[in-house]
Amino acid sequence: MSQSPGSVCAMSRSRLAVVALVSLVVTALLSLGVSRGFGALRLEWRTLQVLPRHRSTSWGDLANFLAVPVISGVLIASLVFGALRRVLLRVLVGAGSAALAFVISEQIMKPLVGQRWNGPLLSFPSGNVTAVCATALAMWIALYPVLGNLARVITFAIGAGWTLLMSVVVVGALWHTPLDDIGSLFLSVGIVTAGAAILGPKKSTPAPPVETEPEPEPQREPVTAGV
After folding, report:
1. Alpha-carbon distance 167 to 103, whole Å?
2. How far apart, in whole angstroms, are the C-alpha atoms of residue 100 and residue 67?
3. How far is CA 168 from CA 16, 50, 63, 68, 154, in A?
4. Domain-embedded: residue 144
5. What is the DSSP letter of 36?
6. Quick one: pLDDT at residue 38?
7. Predicted confidence band at 7 (pLDDT cuts at 50, 70, 90)?
8. Domain tally, the chain
9. pLDDT tens-digit map of 178-221
10. Residue 216 lies in a domain
């Protein structure tokens, strides 16, 4: 039996809520640890020792390309596809949750944590990784009901690869540490899945069948024998 887009999304609301709760709790714990000094110079010093101590313009150029230009292309493609498949509202809501994740990352999390790495700018969490991860996940959740099984796997793999590439690039550019990336991933997943769980359609239950009374049988007129 085929399922409607709403029913497919509704079945996963509880799972999305659990994922959101776990991700946001992990984000809060990471933020607390980094704000208390367990940041790049303590937990990650072995990883950072292998990085060059100079900024690479090529890494930065690639990070800039993977951010605004690619995000814009993904959003435009998702809006067009969503309009054609009649799930445009879902795409708009997903884009809003991705934008919210980025705003929380830049305007709330960074000032609260106060982590700085290789410069005066606040680094935890990474805004670039947050924007990419939130956009990829939000569009995947928004279009999930109208994608086939193979398309779901392919689009998820593309989004994960895009996020992983951005995570590596910002570390290579010495903009962020690996811990910044991890915090961005959990924050993005938490905000996007929370939005999908809250704003997603509720699971509809089929109405019980209406009992109909049997129709009375038509009465036959008595047949009288002719004289």
Report:
1. 18
2. 16
3. 27, 13, 9, 17, 21
4. yes
5. T
6. 67
7. very low
8. 1
9. 888 999 999 999 999 999 998 766 554 444 555 555 555 656 55
10. no
d(CA 145, CA 82): 11
In a domain, 138, yes or no: yes
Cα distance between the two ends of the chain: 65
Please state the length of the chain. 227
Nearest alpha carbon to residue 101 among 183, 175, 18, 208: 183
Alpha-helical segments (H) within the chain: 5-11, 13-35, 45-49, 57-84, 88-104, 110-113, 127-143, 149-172, 178-199
Q: Whose structure tokens read 């809003």?
A: 96
As given in the structure block, the two tokens for residue 187 are: 């924050």
**Structure tokens given for 116:** 């700085």
**Domain of residue 21, residue span:** 5-40+72-199
Q: Which of 77, 203, 90, 198 is nearest to 144 (CA)?
A: 90
* Structure confidence by residue, pLDDT tens digits, 139-171: 999 999 999 999 999 999 999 999 999 999 998
pTM: predicted TM-score of the whole model, two decimal places: 0.79
- Ramachandran bin of 76, using left for φ above 0, alpha for ψ from -120 to 50, beta for the remaining angles: alpha
